[in-house]
Amino acid sequence: MSVLSKKEIEVRLKKSPEDLESIIITPLLDEKFDHDSVDLRLGCYFRVPAVSTTECVKPYQDTVEHYPELVHKPYGQDREVNTLILQPHHAVLASTLEYIKMPGDVSGQILTKSSWARLFISIASAPWIHPFYRGCLTLEVTNLGNVPVALPVGKPMAQLVFIKLELEDEDKIKKDVIEGSYAGAVMPEAPKFKA
Fold first, then answer.
1. Which domains, and CATH codes, for the chain?
2. CA 182 to CA 186: how far, in whole Å?
3. What is the pTM of this model?
4. What single-letter DSSP state applies at residue 13?
């Protein structure tokens, strides 16, 4: 496996959406690239675990589709900044502002931007993205620090690293397959457990 460089990411972003090697990131404002990653911004939707609304979550027994609660923080046309205050030692599910289309020969890894990590904010609890994934990514944002932190909608919070798979000729993926529990998401998804 190897990490895609900025140059290869840019080449794949210019390919036709029908091309199985194309990458789509939209909206891709300001083209925020490092040498080996793309910045992703915090989206408008959050799932907040409200203590008073759920007595006990029982995975595999009860549906958990309404836990955590869905909260929307608008991101205006004039790029005004709205925030969600994340209390110490609390976590929320958030989505990226960007919609992602992964190619068939590449996986991805989401990493916390170092400036946020220095505030004890972590988003790396489920960081892997499979080939052919489509949708806004769900981020598990945790405040590991001892003071509340304002999470600004529309600001860079994560980095997406693309990892090229080493496929044998007979293993090459020849058709576009969208599958998985969370494929096509446009806001943070509630958990889905398979029996």
1. 2-171 (2.70.40.10)
2. 10
3. 0.79
4. H
DSSP state, residue 38: E
- What 8-state DSSP symbol labels residue 30? T
pLDDT for 59-104, tens place per residue?
766 655 666 677 777 776 555 568 889 999 999 999 999 999 999 8
β-pair partners for 121: 143
53 CB-near residues (< 8 Å, 6+ apart): 67, 69
CB atoms within 10 A of CB 57: 12
Tokens 């058709």 found at: 175
Kindly report, residue by residue over 125-175, the tens digit of the pLDDT: 678 899 989 999 999 999 999 999 999 999 999 999 999 988 765 455 555
Q: Using an 8 Å Cβ cutoff, are 151 and 157 in contact?
A: yes
